[in-house]
Structures are given as structure tokens and as C-alpha cells.
């Protein structure tokens, strides 16, 4: 980074686990500004910082005032060196100082270092998501050549009473995950999500770092739709806070779609949360889902409560490695 572009009195260094508290405060201030419930937690940041193959010295940057106040943050991670993702945040009183631009430029420079490691002939892109109401972020990204390519929703249902019991297709039964099934669930996850926009195959190491994290992993909230010994579909869920449940991943493998399994999995998850006294359940969805997931969730009684924009910038032309449409 060219430090001459930084505002007076601001210095930069790599992030560390010691910055987590200050980073949570930075994100909380942003969320209050947008009028939404703060959602970043220390556990989430620590999980990101300890992800396999993450090098905080190379993949993160924080900016501090001469008084030691953390006022900006940038983070870069990759999927197989072809889809590069960045997380950015700058305190409101520093956004027009040039600091936000400098942090984004650093992130893009770091992202471009992945180009030499990406398979030959594949397109390399840098991506960032932001709330639809976060206008200053949108302007920042657009100034640097990013374009909106997708919309996503957070959807929610408020459970005033239990839903009807799930109706399972003939031959399908539901069970919770059991010890030793982790690899099978991972493989079903990779197969099912191949039909989701932007999919690039994940590694078991990365998947398990998040899916099996002890802060959120609850095997009694993992619901597997089984056809004999095969996993036809799954809903991986967890509790966050006192009265909030999340469906982190829900998908049905191709051979078992259009049978009502996704709807049954949702009802199973909703009723399990209700029985635990959790009445607010959320999930994230692609607004233009290739598999029609949005319609499934709407039929289940969910509604959109937040919208996100996915911005993308091409760093190297080539064949798009991620799923763009169904074959």
C-alpha cells in the first residue's frame, strides 16, 4: 500500500485476534447506521481468522488513528484462487477521507496475487456483498469498476404456533446427523450446491471449519432426508442468540427434487426450533435461485427482511469456473 494516500495520522498493519473486540464495534456502528440489528460477533470473526490456509499477515489490513482507534478493515479470502472475496469496513467519519478507497485498492492488489495460482484459462473475479441500503459502499465499489451481478435476501418466519407435521415422500425418512456422517453430509452438500449460482467446490477442511464449529454445531439441529442409506437432502441449522434460529444450508440432491423434500425439511426445522422456544427463524437465499428455492421458502411462510447486492470485478478473463446456469 502507498501510505502517502492515507489520511494524516493514520497507519496500517495486519489484523490480529487482539483486534476482534474493536472490529465487532466497527461493524456494530455500521449496522446501527443502517438501522439493522447488529449481527457480527467475536466468535464469527475468530472463526474467519482461524480458517485453514488464512494468513492474517497477508490477507488482512487494519487502519488505526494516532490514538490507536481502529477505523478501517479489509480482508481477502479465496475459493481455489478463482473467486476472491473481500470484506471491507470503514468508520463513517473516515469514508470520504480516501481511506476507504485505499483499503479497497489494497484488497484488490492482494486479490490479484491469486491470479498466478489460478488454473490456466479460468476467469478470476473479486467479489463483495453489501446491504441494499448501504449507498456509500455501493458508490465506493462502482468507483473502482465493480458491477452488481446478483441479489440475495435474508428471509424470516415468525412462528406463532407449530406448523403441521412434515409430509415425507414414500421411502424418505428424516434423522439427525450421527457421528461418522460428517463426510457424507459434506459430499451431499457439494453435490447439491453445484446447481447454485457461483458454486465452486469446497474442501472438507474448509467446510468442517464452519459447519462443525463448536459455537454453532448442534447435531440435533441437522436434519437429513434419507433414502435408504443415501442422503437425499439436508437442512443444517443452528441457534444464534436467545430467540433466533438459522437454517444455514438447505438443499436437495438432483435425483430427489420436485418431491416436496425441501418443504418437509423446512417444516421439520421450524417445528424443532418452536419446541425449543425459538420463534424467529432465518435463512439466506439467492433472489434468482436456479433451483427455485425462493418460491419454496415463500410457500413455507417466509418473507424477505433484508436485501444484499453482490458486486463483482473481473481480474482476469477466461472461462467462468462457477455455476452460472443449470446445465
TrEMBL record:
Domain N-acetyltransferase: 10-164, 172-322
GO molecular function: acyltransferase activity, transferring groups other than amino-acyl groups
Segments passing through the bilayer: none
Presence of the UniProt keyword Ligase in the record: no
Heme listed as a keyword: no
Gene3D superfamilies: 3.40.630.30
CDD domains for this protein: NAT_SF
SUPFAM superfamilies in UniProt: Acyl-CoA N-acyltransferases (Nat)
Protein name: GCN5-related N-acetyltransferase
Organism: Ktedonobacter racemifer DSM 44963
Amino acid at each position: 500500500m502507498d501510505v502517502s494516500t492515507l489520511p494524516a495520522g493514520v497507519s496500517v498493519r495486519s489484523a490480529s485476534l487482539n483486534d476482534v473486540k474493536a472490529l465487532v464495534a466497527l461493524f456494530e456502528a455500521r449496522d446501527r447506521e443502517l438501522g439493522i440489528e447488529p449481527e457480527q460477533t467475536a466468535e464469527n470473526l475468530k472463526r474467519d481468522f482461524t480458517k485453514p490456509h488464512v494468513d492474517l499477515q497477508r490477507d488482512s489490513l487494519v487502519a488505526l488513528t494516532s490514538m490507536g482507534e481502529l477505523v478501517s478493515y479489509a480482508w481477502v479470502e479465496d475459493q481455489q484462487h478463482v473467486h476472491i472475496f473481500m470484506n471491507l469496513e470503514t468508520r463513517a467519519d473516515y469514508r470520504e477521507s480516501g481511506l476507504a478507497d485505499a483499503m479497497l485498492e489494497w484488497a484488490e492488489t492482494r486479490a490479484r496475487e491469486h491470479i498466478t495460482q489460478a488454473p490456466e484459462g479460468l476467469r478470476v473475479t473479486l467479489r463483495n456483498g453489501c446491504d441494499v441500503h448501504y449507498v456509500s459502499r455501493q458508490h465506493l465499489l462502482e468507483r473502482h469498476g465493480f458491477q452488481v451481478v446478483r441479489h440475495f435476501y435474508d428471509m424470516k418466519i415468525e412462528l406463532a404456533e407449530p406448523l403441521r407435521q412434515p409430509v415425507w415422500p414414500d421411502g424418505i425418512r428424516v434423522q439427525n446427523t450421527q457421528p461418522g456422517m460428517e463426510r457424507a453430509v459434506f459430499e451431499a452438500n457439494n453435490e447439491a450446491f453445484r446447481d447454485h449460482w457461483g458454486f465452486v467446490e469446497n474442501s472438507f477442511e474448509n467446510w468442517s471449519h464452519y459447519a462443525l464449529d463448536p459455537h454453532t454445531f448442534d447435531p440435533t439441529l441437522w436434519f437429513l432426508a434419507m433414502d435408504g442409506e443415501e442422503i437425499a437432502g439436508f437442512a443444517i441449522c443452528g441457534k444464534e442468540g436467545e430467540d433466533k434460529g438459522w437454517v444455514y444450508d438447505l438443499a436437495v440432491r438432483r435425483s430427489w427434487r420436485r418431491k416436496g423434500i425441501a418443504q418437509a425439511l423446512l417444516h421439520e426445522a421450524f417445528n424443532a426450533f418452536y419446541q425449543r422456544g425459538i420463534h424467529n427463524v432465518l435463512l439466506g437465499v439467492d433472489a434468482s435461485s436456479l433451483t427455485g428455492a425462493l418460491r419454496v421458502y415463500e410457500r413455507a411462510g417466509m418473507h424477505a427482511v433484508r436485501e444484499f447486492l453482490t458486486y463483482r470485478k473481473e481480474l482476469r478473463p477466461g472461462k467462468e469456473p462457477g455455476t452460472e446456469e443449470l446445465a
